[in-house]
């Protein structure tokens, strides 16, 4: 059900200290809270799920393998890789003609342009996990006006989804199927868009595709596997939370151990103004959550520069692979400002179904 949003002078007055003079008038959020089931398909977590809290019944779902690259639709020319399937990318040294590149030219890179090697240097081969793609120095560099300045990349296409019917122990997960191979890729600018050139490593002729910027969306997505553009995320301000597997940075004993593949991860729509922060509770969670009101919101605590503001902070997976090893923290909830300026509190109730299978999140939220 789509909620009706109306203007409220009272709410404007209450929140005016949090808003700039140029912001649009504040609309009233949905007047009642809701409980939401957000399933990414079970313990193999084949799906990505996008939710707008103001229209939570209209969930948007795609397979993780439906896309490979995302092309930014704003003024800058930036491209992201699909971290939900463990992709990685590196420049091919001294390569100038994509059709001349062969596997023998990149053999020294095949073993290191990988995820989960526990080598901190492999962070250079993935997108910055905080989501600040406009300023990142890893992954694919900014696409330059001069075609000759745009490198030819070796792209690790990541992992396929696990086979249908794969057996997964209760409480555990299985994210990675077979490897999806390698591509060589070069991206250049065209008027109001991009041209992607791509091929398998030993191909002597490449494919090309033009991606025109559609500014209704943050990214225009493309599948090299299927040779087509695809719609993945909803329109810019039509989602707040993304439920997905995720390429993050992992730490051991306080030091970076490089990129690592995370399940049960939540990203916020940071590119379009969504921010969140955690409220840690020392006493009874029910009482603290129910008592939290709009006046308790602390604007200084919102995280607007990292789409991992919720991330994996809502659950833990320590221990063995027993059903009880993965569970939702019971000492915290979150406050969220959505893409349209509404404020919510939300807490997570479970990450498994009654059979103990992960990938079945339940959360509740209330407008503030």
TrEMBL record:
<keyword id="KW-0732">Signal</keyword>
<feature type="signal peptide">
    <location>
        <begin position="1"/>
        <end position="21"/>
    </location>
</feature>
<dbReference type="InterPro" id="IPR025921">
    <property type="entry name" value="HmuY"/>
</dbReference>
<protein>
    <recommendedName>
        <fullName>HmuY protein</fullName>
    </recommendedName>
</protein>
<dbReference type="Pfam" id="PF14064">
    <property type="entry name" value="HmuY"/>
</dbReference>
């Amino acid at each position: 059900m789509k909620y009706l949003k109306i203007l409220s002078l009272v709410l404007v007055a209450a929140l005016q200290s949090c808003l700039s003079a140029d912001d649009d008038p504040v609309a009233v959020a949905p007047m009642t809270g809701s409980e939401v089931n957000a399933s990414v398909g079970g313990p193999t977590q084949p799906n990505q799920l996008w939710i707008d809290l103001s229209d939570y019944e209209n969930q948007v779902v795609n397979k993780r393998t439906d896309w490979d690259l995302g092309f930014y639709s704003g003024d800058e020319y930036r491209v992201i890789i699909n971290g939900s399937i463990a992709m990685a990318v590196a420049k091919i040294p001294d390569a100038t003609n994509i059709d001349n590149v062969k596997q023998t030219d990149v053999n020294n890179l095949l073993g290191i342009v990988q995820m989960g090697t526990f080598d901190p240097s492999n962070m250079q081969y993935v997108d910055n996990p905080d989501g600040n793609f406009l300023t990142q120095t890893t992954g694919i560099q900014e696409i330059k006006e001069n075609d000759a300045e745009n490198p030819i990349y070796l792209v690790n296409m990541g992992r396929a989804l696990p086979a249908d019917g794969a057996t997964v122990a209760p409480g555990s997960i299985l994210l990675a199927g077979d490897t999806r191979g390698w591509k060589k890729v070069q991206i250049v600018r065209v008027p109001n868009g991009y041209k992607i050139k791509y091929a398998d490593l030993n191909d002597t002729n490449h494919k090309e595709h033009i991606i025109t910027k559609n500014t209704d969306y943050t990214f225009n997505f493309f599948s090299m596997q299927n040779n087509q553009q695809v719609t993945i995320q909803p329109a810019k301000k039509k989602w707040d939370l993304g439920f997905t597997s995720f390429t993050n940075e992992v730490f051991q004993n306080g030091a970076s151990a490089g990129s690592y593949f995370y399940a049960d991860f939540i990203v916020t729509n940071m590119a379009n103004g969504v921010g969140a922060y955690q409220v840690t509770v020392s006493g009874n969670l029910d009482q603290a959550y129910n008592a939290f009101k709009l006046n308790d919101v602390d604007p200084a605590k919102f995280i607007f520069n990292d789409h991992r503001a919720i991330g994996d902070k809502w659950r833990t997976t320590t221990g063995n692979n027993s059903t009880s090893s993965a569970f939702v923290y019971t000492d915290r909830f979150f406050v969220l400002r959505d893409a349209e300026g509404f404020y919510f509190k939300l807490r997570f109730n479970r990450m498994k179904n009654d059979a103990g299978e992960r990938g079945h999140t339940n959360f509740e939220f209330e407008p503030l």
